[in-house]
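Q: A reviewer asked whether we had any structural model of the full assembly, not just the individual parts. We don't, so I'm hoping you can provide one. Inputs are below.
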Amino acid sequence: MKQPVLTTKIKKWQIPLFIVLLIFGFVLVAQYRTHLAVQNNLESLSISELTELVISLNEREAALSAEQETMQAALDSINERINTGISMAATTQNQLNTMEMITGKVPVQGPGISITITGESYLIYHDLIMLVNELFVTGAEVVCINDVRITHKTAINEAIDEFGHRDITIDGKVLLLPIIIKAIGNPDTLEKGLTFTGGIINKFNTIYQVFPIVKKEANLIIPAAKNAPSLYLKSVVKDSTKKNKEEE
Amino acid sequence: MKQNLKQPIIIFTILAVAAGFMLTVAFNSLAPYNTAESANNEYKKLTDFIIDLEEKNAETENKILRLRNEITSVQNEQSKEEGLLLALQKKFNEMALTAGYVEATGAGLIISLDDNTDAAIVAQKNSPETYKAENFIIHDSDLLYILKALAPYTEAAAINGQRIIDTSHIRCVGTVIMVNSVRLAPPYLISVIGNPEALNTALHSSGTFLYLTEKKDMPVTVTIAEDIILPASGSSFMLTYTKAAQISQ
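A: Here is a predicted structure for the entire assembly that you could use as a starting point for your response.
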């Protein structure tokens, strides 16, 4: 007699429980997806972060517009020279000169800032990577550390000596004190970019008790880079100068 | 009879409380956005402005690349006629390749780093009070340190199509990673041209890589590729403050 009554009672609450569990599962997934979507979109950023993004994009826009104007002027100049029959060698030589400075083929000079770190410090190589990155964020055109020019091929790492002491290395060589970082660019912008409250120098002061001396410089000299030749890198567009040689 | 009713009521109560808690958490996560949006249109204006700027910058980048190609093509065409120009153009093309001024190809390594969404789901479900999204995402510093670990063997590199040049920078604004001031989304594909074996060894010796794979169990894949193609950099190659050094002999 009791068994059928018990079966009926269980069925009554099983159905709503199933529905509630279903809704619960749906809410759980929806909540997580919303969270992920919000996290990866602009909507996840605060007004101040969005403003920071706008400033960064505006800076890039200005740099790109200037580049576009220069390129257009160069193209116009080349076309004009072709039309008037003047050799393009001078234009190409100018471009080559700029490219030699960009790639670190030649020593360069210009205004900027120097950052000097003296005495023993607890800085690790990650801090130096961050400092160099911050200089480029702030608009540095060329950077060197203890007269080693920094390129995208420069290794900033660490080595552990026989006493277990960690030394910062640049391209495999131990970095000796004092560490002098030079950056060519707008001195005011570079200085402000590093020294604002909450900035990287402030972090060095508060976390490591390291107090680098940041100084604006009217003229810094940065030596050429010592890059190894590229063995694996090839051009996608076939170099027409090679083609010409082959044809000859 | 009372006994039979007690069990479902307890279960319903627990589920209702849990669902209520989750809805509150979900609402709270959207609250800043909703509040800001309803309070004023500043937020929407800013996001629209950012999207417009990004589109405008992408368009300018394309125009610059077209101009560069046109200049290179005209110069190459002209160089056929002039011996001096031929030599200059050859030198320029070689340097343009390493500088990231033009597209590049070659053998190397492709590393894919992704946010750990699976672990994030589990952590959020099991302990929502201690859950921190930043523990399950790739950070700007991770990309920066891995690039630097590979640097000695890197001939050219790019992250999600953003070519890494000497002045490249990686930073984050909130949870968004920006490379060369361009917003990127996960997964992050680091493509590096260079000796694949040397790159692979350097990668597996990198403290950051080991931390991400072994300690944090982030979804990472490493592929050795024979024909990686890297785009030309859309960044500016203008030097405003830098001049060739006049070094007295």
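A: Points you may want to mention in the reply: The mean pLDDT of chain A is 83. Strands of chain A lie at 108-117, 142-145, 148-149, 156-160, 166-170, 173-174, 179-184, 213-222, 234-235.
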